[in-house]
Amino acid sequence: MMSFEQIASISGAADALPANLAQAFGLDMPAAVADGAAPMQGPEFSRLFLDQISAVNDKLSGADHAVQMLATGEAPSLHDVMIRLEEARLSFQLLAQVRNRLLEAYQEVMRMQV
Fold first, then answer.
1. pLDDT value at residue 40
2. How far, in Å, are 5, 12, 79, 113 from residue 1 at the CA level?
């Protein structure tokens, strides 16, 4: 069994990890995070996820509109339409994979013994 001191040393190393990784890759960290202070509060995860869902929906709507313009002969080129369709498809696939990973993580947490 681990002692309290060992757990505290691991915890301390984990707290310093983001700053160490940033230094190793030559990235600039905000002073509050680099000094070990509490990280800055940002938008909630749910807000970020909803924003991404909205962005994917906008891409899908734009691609649908581009297909309609192509069908009526108003689209500037087939290549532009195909690029928009592919961007929308990839965005949707990424969103679906993120959702699947979130569901897997939730199910894993629900299976944990308390």
1. 60
2. 12, 19, 63, 20
